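Incident log, support desk, overnight shift.

02:14 A customer reports that sequence design results differ from what the structure should imply. Their input is reproduced verbatim below. On-call engineer (initials T.W.) acknowledged and began investigating.
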C-alpha cells in the first residue's frame, strides 16, 4: 500500500514540475493556480475557453494535430483513418477534460512507452529537425481547443469508419517472403503491386538494372578499365555478394556497405571519381549488382569485429528521436500491419533495396529511406553514407535474415 501511495505521489510531483516548466504562449496562465493530479490536469492551460470548432480543424491539420493518421474518428467524410491508436468515437465519455489535457500535453506521464507524441512538452527530445527544435507541436490554447473538440465525441461509434487490423495473408501465399515471423514488405503489397514487382517487363526498377549493366561494361579512366576487367561476368562473380553487406572492412576498421564498396572500386581500381551517394549511376550499379543475388537469402555477419557496429545499429533502431519522439521500433516492431492513415505499416525490412518507391517515382537506397523516416518524425536526418546509417543498415539486414533479395523491389 505504501509503495502505491509513494508512486502516485512521485508521479504527481513530477507532472507538476513538467507542467510548470512547459513553454506557454503569451497570455496563458503561468504557474499561479495551475494544479495537477496524477490522473490528469484539471486546471485549463489558458484563461480562454477551448473552442471545439477550432479543435476540429486542428485535429485534421496534418502539420499540427493530424489525429486521423493514428486514430479512427467519427468523420465518415474523411477516408483512410489510422488504426495504430484507439478509436476516438466515444472519447468524450471515456475521459475527462483533465485526463485528455494531460494525454495531449505529455502522454508519457501516464505511459512511458506510449508512441503518442507530446503535443506541448519539448523537454527530453533527441535529434529534432532544426525547423521544429524547441517548439511545441501545439500551443497551450490549441491544446484547450482540441480538448473541447474531443469532449464532444460521445456515443458516435456507428459513424466511425470500420478500419480494423489489416488481415494477414496466409503463410503459404507469402512464402518465401515470410520466415519465422519476419515479413518482407512484399507481403504487405496489394495484389496489383505484387504483380508489378514480379513482372520483369513492367517493374520500373528494371530500367536501373539495364543502366547498371551498361555501366558494368563501360571502360573508364586512363587505363580504360571496366568492372568486367576484374570481375568478368556479373552473373557469376556477383552472385551472393548482396546478401553479406554491410560487412566489416579491416582497412578502415568499420563497416562498409555495397554502395561504398562500388565507389572504392571506382577510385582505386578504375582511378575515376566516386559516384555521389544516391546518384542515378550509383543506384544503377548497386541495383545491378544486387539483382545478381535475387532470390538468395540475407545472411550478414554480426559477430567478432562486427559486433560493436551491430549493437550501435540496434541502439539507433530503438532510440526515440525527433519532435514526435518515436523510434524505428515503434512502427516496424510494435505496429506492423496497422495503418497510419491509409498506409499499412510494414516491418521495414530491407531485403528489397534498392527499391522503386511509387511515392518517390524513382529508385532509392536504404539510406534514402532512413532519412525519409527521420524527417517524417521531424528528426534531423543524417547524410547518406553516414556511419550511423551503415550501422543501422547492418542491424536491419540481420533483422531480415533469411528473407530473399528482391532488388529491385516495388514499394508504395
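02:41 Re-run completed on a clean worker. Output:
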Amino acid at each position: 500500500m505504501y509503495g502505491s501511495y509513494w508512486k502516485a505521489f512521485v508521479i504527481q510531483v513530477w507532472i507538476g514540475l513538467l507542467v510548470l516548466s512547459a513553454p506557454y504562449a503569451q497570455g496563458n496562465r503561468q504557474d499561479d493556480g495551475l494544479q495537477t493530479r496524477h490522473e490528469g490536469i484539471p486546471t485549463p492551460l489558458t484563461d480562454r475557453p477551448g473552442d471545439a470548432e477550432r479543435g476540429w480543424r486542428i485535429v485534421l491539420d496534418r502539420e499540427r494535430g493530424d489525429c486521423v493518421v493514428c486514430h479512427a474518428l467519427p468523420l465518415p467524410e474523411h477516408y483512410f483513418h489510422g488504426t495504430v491508436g484507439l478509436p476516438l468515437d466515444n472519447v468524450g465519455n471515456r475521459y475527462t477534460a483533465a485526463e485528455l489535457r494531460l494525454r495531449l500535453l505529455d502522454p508519457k506521464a501516464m505511459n512511458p512507452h506510449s508512441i503518442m507524441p507530446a503535443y506541448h512538452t519539448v523537454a527530453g527530445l533527441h535529434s529534432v529537425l532544426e525547423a521544429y527544435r524547441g517548439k511545441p507541436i501545439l500551443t497551450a490554447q490549441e491544446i484547450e481547443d482540441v480538448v473541447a473538440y474531443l469532449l464532444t465525441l460521445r456515443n458516435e461509434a456507428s459513424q466511425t469508419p470500420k478500419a480494423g487490423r489489416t488481415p494477414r495473408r496466409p503463410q503459404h501465399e507469402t512464402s518465401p517472403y515470410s520466415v519465422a515471423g519476419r515479413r518482407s514488405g512484399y507481403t504487405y503489397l496489394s495484389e496489383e503491386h505484387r504483380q508489378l514487382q514480379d513482372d520483369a517487363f513492367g517493374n520500373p526498377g528494371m530500367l536501373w538494372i539495364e543502366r547498371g549493366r551498361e555501366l558494368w561494361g563501360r571502360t573508364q579512366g586512363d587505363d580504360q578499365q571496366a568492372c568486367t576487367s576484374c570481375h568478368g561476368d556479373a552473373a557469376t562473380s556477383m552472385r551472393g555478394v548482396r546478401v553479406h553487406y554491410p560487412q566489416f572492412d579491416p582497412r578502415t576498421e568499420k563497416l562498409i556497405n555495397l554502395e561504398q564498396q562500388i565507389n572504392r572500386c571506382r577510385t582505386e581500381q578504375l582511378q575515376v571519381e566516386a559516384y555521389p551517394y544516391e546518384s542515378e549511376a550509383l543506384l544503377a550499379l548497386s541495383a545491378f549488382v544486387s539483382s545478381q543475388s535475387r532470390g538468395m537469402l540475407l545472411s550478414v555477419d554480426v559477430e567478432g569485429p562486427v559486433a560493436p557496429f551491430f549493437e550501435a545499429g540496434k541502439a539507433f533502431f530503438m532510440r526515440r528521436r525527433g519532435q514526435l519522439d518515436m523510434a524505428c521500433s515503434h512502427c516496424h516492431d510494435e505496429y506492423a500491419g496497422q495503418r497510419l492513415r491509409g498506409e499499412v505499416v510494414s516491418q521495414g525490412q530491407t531485403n528489397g533495396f534498392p527499391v522503386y518507391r511509387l511515392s518517390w517515382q524513382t529508385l532509392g537506397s536504404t539510406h534514402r529511406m532512413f532519412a525519409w523516416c527521420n524527417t517524417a518524425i521531424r528528426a534531423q536526418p543524417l547524410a547518406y553514407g553516414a556511419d550511423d546509417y551503415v550501422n543501422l543498415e547492418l542491424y536491419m539486414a540481420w533483422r531480415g535474415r533469411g528473407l530473399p533479395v528482391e532488388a529491385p523491389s516495388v514499394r508504395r
